[in-house]
User: What shape does this take?
Amino acid sequence: MKFTVFGATGFIGSHLCRHLRGQGHEVYTPARVDEAALDRPLGHTVYCIGKTANYRDDAGATVEAHVGLFARILGAARFDSLLYLSSTRLYDSCAGECGEDRALMLNPGEPRHLFDLSKALGEALCHASGRREVRIARLASVYSDALESANFLHGLVKSALRGKTVKVGAPANAARDYIHCDDVCRVLEAIALRGMRPVYNVASGENVTNERLFALLSELCGVTIEGEPPDPGLSFPAIRIAAIAEDFGIRPESLESRLRRMIPAAPARRRVGGRP
Assistant: This one.
């Protein structure tokens, strides 16, 4: 089967390409501005281009990455399916459990919502196309064993593995849904090949509070992790993942289970004087 991955050099895109090739698929990885890609059949296409941590630095580039480039591919490319990677951050202003049909609450006057609004506009283009083979995947917080991207969890784990007291400027009751990139890649492949719905949540279905995460890393790494006091004004929606379970039989691994396999012997090494 042929796949095309736009954004193949990024965190998600690079992992996805390795996974797809490992499954025996042909994978084409055009450069971001390769107009020649629009003149050839692309097969099952996954749009992984985006700006995350630095999205506020250049609002125009963020909108171009999430909307402009995607609009050109959607309008001109020849594909068997097209999967747009969005984010479960779109639910951040909601309460309770959030399924794919949840109404979103976004505020153009809130600087943090620039990312959310641009992703929502990319999603709107998918819906407006009226094409059943155009689908959306809303990703939760993705992590990997290699800890290579500059996200909150990777930074925290790397600090804990250094074996010193870690101070974190985040409240203990803040929570996120974490999903490993291996599970993400399995789900994205399944959506591209067998997806039946316009939108899928790609998450573990379990929120992990900072308090629980700090305690787990303290146990595994033998360090002390200090966070900010709980903020009573915070609330974090739970992400509903029934669609990927029902359609593909995929149930992502929990963060705790994965971390215990990633760093199983850190305390023992420290007790005998070894380095992490």
